[in-house]
Amino acid sequence: MNRLSKKLFARRKFQAQLFPTLAYIIFMALLLWLGYWQLDRAAQKSELFAAFASGDTEAMRLDDALEKAQSRYQRVEVSGRFVEEKQYLVDNIVFQGQVGLHVLTPFRTDTGDLLLVNRGWISLAAKHGPLTDLENLLNYSTIRQSITGRLDKMLRPGLLLKTEIPDSVYPKTVQFPTFEQLSTDLKEPIIHWQLLLDAEPANSNVSAYVREWSPHEIGPERHLGYALQWFALAFTLTIIFLVLSFRPITQTESS
Predict the structure, then answer these.
(1) pTM exceeds 0.85 for this model
(2) For residue 106, is it within any domain?
């Protein structure tokens, strides 16, 4: 390889021109920045997935979890009551290739705060089935109780469209609502976390809800793949720049 490179560049000299050099520097800086940015994103996602794994521990008090630097996916226990007759059906949630909904129910904690509880996923067929079946499925107790689950952000789509909460009766069908929109609709402040309710015991009769929670983010390996692509483009750009910059030596220059 060394002998071949010497043979190739024996009758050539490095003679880079101004504008191609400036273009090379600019594009090289951009490609390297994109590569390192993707590496940073991969590190962040690794921490996020680790947080999800570490959150599968004994539940802590909600107030203590909210004071942590990393609250997302922390498993918590909170006592209070579900708010009567107020629910949201978050539409277009896909689970194992099927379209369905997440059921969000406001929960009044013992300290008076309002927390949105994600009770799980139901199929679209359940929504469009007999009305009595849907009412029975959405029914819940408003007595004081303790519940456990993981804290999470509100699910956001890849393409963010402007949506509003309809001015209709509950339960309201919504499209990827924000905490601000829900707070406005409920006419009071809410905690800016949703609680992903723990799965029911195996012998429970609440089988229509699916609570197989997992991080809804692309994994760190995808970002590592993107980083490799940007670095490969940077390497290719360097090869092209060098090939174009080494020009043949003319007879006048060699004499």
Answers:
(1) no
(2) yes
